[in-house]
């Protein structure tokens, strides 16, 4: 792979608080009917962890179907800071971690992307040392990493936290991590992924019990298997990994994004429009489809990888409780709430996964929704209509919820805080415009009154840096 400088799209290459980004808003004129077909991008949460997983291999890894998202750019920057070479070609990403120059990830980058903490497992397995800053809390909760740390300790790593940095290393006679039986107190997606990656190169067998069963965990396992890892049971609550000395080159396509697909199903429902989507894995959407059907929409499987939503005339309230997979996904709680604000009756939404994931409630209320929050419950009383308003997104899925509400509201909704949306939805504006929605991204001029229409931000990632042979 040829060494080239890092080139990132200006809108995605710096922190999210620049005044330019603050001025970019999404204007939505609600009420338009949608029609046609939308293409679903690769799964963000697979892409992020599979990029980390590429650290396990000292040869080229070609990852296909990688969405162009701000979070993917961040993860590329982190790998690049470790000395890994990356090159983006369309929606494929070539990663070469033959030389890892650094065992320490920079705080400025880790603090912007919690998923970057997941590099701790592969780094420790490859180098015998990893120093990763604690990522800290975020808009949706405290998000500790104790389960990752305890699992690595069970595999023989010394782990100490000093000055906000998790220092993990192998000491004594251990040249490799040691297989272990690990029970997770909670089926954490990230901890399951960290430990599964670490175990691929460990000595002996690791069994992870009460493992997360999310499709992205299974996708990571399939990627690791494609590199020669020996993993059984991913996608169930017990994963068994037999460590191997090294992994080899691979060419792997990640699964479609089930949360993006679910968001478009809600877009069809909330605008009373029939739309189809592909590629999707319908089995990944079972809980979401069941709730949409309970509310009054029909979901038809036109082909094994294609779904069509046939909207209802009226919708009825339904209760939702977020749970680890295969339960109802926390990432779809905010989008579904938008639809329930317009469904007859009272719905109780219970968020059990993250402690602070109701940031969208106050904004939906500004649009006329009737929602009360009591602890982990939101009680949504359906109203006949929402009215467009200026609103601010507080996190990624909250931003999707506000866009969905804006598509159905009367009049104009202006969504601020688009850096959240750009973390997880590839070309959302363009995809919705193609379906017939009336919306545009604009940047207000310096005087605040001369809007400039903008396309969705795109990533131009050629991220490569010369590798350095010596681990730090
Ligand atoms: N938790 C702990 N200790 C740990 C790890 C997790 O207490 O060591 C707690 C968390 O604080 C949280 C719960 O366990 O309350 C679940 O967290 P989990 O580790 O399962 O989530 P994650 O790995 O941090 C991933 C996704 C999230 C998604 C959750 C749940 C990625 C990069 N992120 O996060 O995606 O909501 O699983 O499915 O894979 C999103 O895409 O918007 C998003 C937030």
Automatic annotation (TrEMBL):
<feature type="active site" description="Proton donor">
    <location>
        <position position="138"/>
    </location>
</feature>
<keyword id="KW-0670">Pyruvate</keyword>
<keyword id="KW-0961">Cell wall biogenesis/degradation</keyword>
<protein>
    <recommendedName>
        <fullName>UDP-N-acetylglucosamine 1-carboxyvinyltransferase</fullName>
        <ecNumber>2.5.1.7</ecNumber>
    </recommendedName>
</protein>
<feature type="binding site">
    <location>
        <position position="114"/>
    </location>
    <ligand>
        <name>UDP-N-acetyl-alpha-D-glucosamine</name>
    </ligand>
</feature>
<comment type="function">
    <text>Cell wall formation. Adds enolpyruvyl to UDP-N-acetylglucosamine.</text>
</comment>
<keyword id="KW-0132">Cell division</keyword>
<feature type="binding site">
    <location>
        <begin position="44"/>
        <end position="45"/>
    </location>
    <ligand>
        <name>phosphoenolpyruvate</name>
    </ligand>
</feature>
<comment type="pathway">
    <text>Cell wall biogenesis; peptidoglycan biosynthesis.</text>
</comment>
<keyword id="KW-0963">Cytoplasm</keyword>
<dbReference type="InterPro" id="IPR050068">
    <property type="entry name" value="MurA_subfamily"/>
</dbReference>
<comment type="similarity">
    <text>Belongs to the EPSP synthase family. MurA subfamily.</text>
</comment>
<keyword id="KW-0808">Transferase</keyword>
<keyword id="KW-0133">Cell shape</keyword>
<dbReference type="GO" id="GO:0008760">
    <property type="term" value="F:UDP-N-acetylglucosamine 1-carboxyvinyltransferase activity"/>
</dbReference>
<dbReference type="InterPro" id="IPR001986">
    <property type="entry name" value="Enolpyruvate_Tfrase_dom"/>
</dbReference>
<keyword id="KW-0573">Peptidoglycan synthesis</keyword>
<feature type="domain" description="Enolpyruvate transferase">
    <location>
        <begin position="30"/>
        <end position="432"/>
    </location>
</feature>
<feature type="binding site">
    <location>
        <position position="353"/>
    </location>
    <ligand>
        <name>UDP-N-acetyl-alpha-D-glucosamine</name>
    </ligand>
</feature>
<dbReference type="InterPro" id="IPR005750">
    <property type="entry name" value="UDP_GlcNAc_COvinyl_MurA"/>
</dbReference>
<feature type="binding site">
    <location>
        <position position="331"/>
    </location>
    <ligand>
        <name>UDP-N-acetyl-alpha-D-glucosamine</name>
    </ligand>
</feature>
<dbReference type="Pfam" id="PF00275">
    <property type="entry name" value="EPSP_synthase"/>
</dbReference>
<dbReference type="InterPro" id="IPR013792">
    <property type="entry name" value="RNA3'P_cycl/enolpyr_Trfase_a/b"/>
</dbReference>
<keyword id="KW-0131">Cell cycle</keyword>
<feature type="binding site">
    <location>
        <begin position="143"/>
        <end position="147"/>
    </location>
    <ligand>
        <name>UDP-N-acetyl-alpha-D-glucosamine</name>
    </ligand>
</feature>
<feature type="modified residue" description="2-(S-cysteinyl)pyruvic acid O-phosphothioketal">
    <location>
        <position position="138"/>
    </location>
</feature>
<dbReference type="InterPro" id="IPR036968">
    <property type="entry name" value="Enolpyruvate_Tfrase_sf"/>
</dbReference>
